Predict the 3D structure of the following.
Amino acid sequence: MSLKILITGAGGLLASSLIPFFPENSQLYLLGYRTKLAFSNSFSFYGDASDFTSISRFFELIRPNIVINCAALANVEQCELDTVLAYKTNVLIARHLALLAFTHQAKLIHISTDHLTDGVSSYVDECHPTYPLNFYASTKLAAELVVGRLCPSALIIRTNFFCTSSGSRPSFSDWILRSLRLGSPLRLFTDSYFTPIHTTLLFRALASLLDLNASGIFNVCSNDRISKYQFGTLLSSHFGHDPSLITPVSLSSRPERVPRPPDMSLSNRKFCLLTGHSIGSVDSMIHLLSDPPSNTLLSSNIW
């Protein structure tokens, strides 16, 4: 019997990158908001997942086996300007899905963030104290807490991903490569660190955790703590662009920005110990930006 999989936030960058990985025999139900969706292997619906009555009826209709919550307002500045929308999108939707997944015994995968600490420590693990520095991070932390309380079997994934966008919103790597192709100068931070993972490896990691029926919080990220500037130079080198177009700058050069943790690097040790898989380096993933996705997310032996 094929799995019924509900994906929320289906018009967003992560969900639209995820959809092509599913096997053709999967029954995908995509819930988007104000976004036209067109995928051959799925059923698309329009709706507001923050409306508990509507999403309850939707659950009753399709009765999904797996729910992947990709709905998020991830623009840090916008979250500060519109706190009501940020709370509605990042917290209420997670709460509703957690209640419904628990009630209907569906497996919930909730996508979180790497913004949850003060950014003083490197390679933080899942037990590291949280200290959100902005409203976006506060809502994502609140969502983790409510999901963990209402649906203990849920998987909560802390990550920071890159990919080639298949929709209208470019990814961070898209923005860098587009600027380099056009010969446009760009400025990247030398003191803002993260552990980015390509979506192909992210999806493989999710499949491994699903196979093990894992629950709780997992960091799913690359092995590398690199700066945004280092990430840009890796892309420039791999794709043969002019590295002089990238100017190294410090976070202090942008004092007007909403505060963010300067070091967002995560440790993937918990994931690796449980699954027996090593995720790998950022450098080893760069070539995947040129490769088409394959239907491997729910397959076994994909490492």
